[in-house]
UniProtKB/TrEMBL annotation:
GO terms for molecular function: phosphoribosylglycinamide formyltransferase activity. NCBIfam families: PurN. It catalyses: N(1)-(5-phospho-beta-D-ribosyl)glycinamide + (6R)-10-formyltetrahydrofolate = N(2)-formyl-N(1)-(5-phospho-beta-D-ribosyl)glycinamide + (6S)-5,6,7,8-tetrahydrofolate + H(+). Its EC number is 2.1.2.2. Residues 20-199 form the Formyl transferase N-terminal domain. The record marks D162 as: Raises pKa of active site His. It comes from Bordetella bronchialis. GO terms for cellular component: cytosol. InterPro entries: Formyl_transf_N, Formyl_transf_N_sf, GART. GO terms for biological process: 'de novo' IMP biosynthetic process. This is Phosphoribosylglycinamide formyltransferase.
Length: 235
């Protein structure tokens, strides 16, 4: 595997062939399920090689096992600190020789050493329109500040939390009467659309970076998904 350097950020340049994806989760893994289903139904040039959870009781592990995907858990409580946990997690990931590591609701802050180990191969989805509302409780933050538009962002992971080159985003309106829970469900529906689209572009080797650290996608697909009312249909 080669790496293309663009200043402070390095993007993986992959050899031809099917991509190997490792997905990290912490809970039910609804985004993981959306990725697996899209990968299989749309016949991506990729395979989900493993699903790894930060909790042994994560419900998503059972779903993955039933889907025939190898699973593992690396429980953060079994380790003395973040560095020890990240070392064990990296060892488990590397057993599966992934091209990309996909964070799909993985609720652990990763150390800079871990992030740099997988530079250009580590991809996250965050439930806000970054750079707005990094961190936790994004839907409550959105309501508290009175924004009229909210959403989610698929991005490459860098050592700076919830930053990094943006691959795609999806928008939803903030509606009268919204609670954090209602808004979260509206956003989640769009996550299930935009995340598979972005990971498919990666699997197809269509993603590159400009010199000023912006993402380009070959073919210029729509990279901003818009909620159109009713359910979660995107234009």
């Amino acid at each position: 595997m080669l790496f293309i350097s663009c200043g402070r950020f390095t993007l993986a340049a992959l050899s031809p062939g099917r991509r190997r994806l490792v997905i990290l989760i912490s809970g039910r893994g609804s985004n993981m399920q959306a990725l697996v289903q899209a990968c299989r139904q749309e016949d991506w040039p990729a395979d989900v090689s493993a699903v790894i959870a930060s909790r042994p009781d994560a419900p998503g592990l059972q779903w993955a096992r039933e889907a025939g995907i190898p699973t593992a858990s690396v429980h953060h409580r079994d380790y003395a600190g973040r560095e020890a946990f990240d070392t064990a997690l990296a060892q488990e990931i590397d057993r599966h020789r992934p091209d990309y590591i996909i964070l799909a609701g993985f609720m652990r802050v990763l150390t800079p050493g871990f992030v740099n180990r997988y530079t250009g191969r580590l991809v996250n989805i965050h439930p806000s329109l970054l750079p707005a509302f990094p961190g936790l409780h994004t839907h409550g933050q959105a309501l508290a500040t009175g924004v009229q538009v909210h959403g989610c962002t698929v991005h490459f992971v860098t050592p700076l939390l919830d930053h990094g080159p943006i691959i795609a985003q999806a928008c939803v309106p903030v509606l009268p009467g919204d609670t954090p829970e209602i808004l979260a469900e509206r956003v989640l529906g769009m996550e299930h659309r935009v995340f598979p689209a972005a990971v498919r572009w990666l699997a197809e080797d269509r993603v590159s970076l400009t010199a000023d650290h912006r993402v380009q996608v070959q073919g210029d697909p729509v990279r901003l998904y818009m909620w159109s009312g009713g359910d979660t249909a995107a234009r």
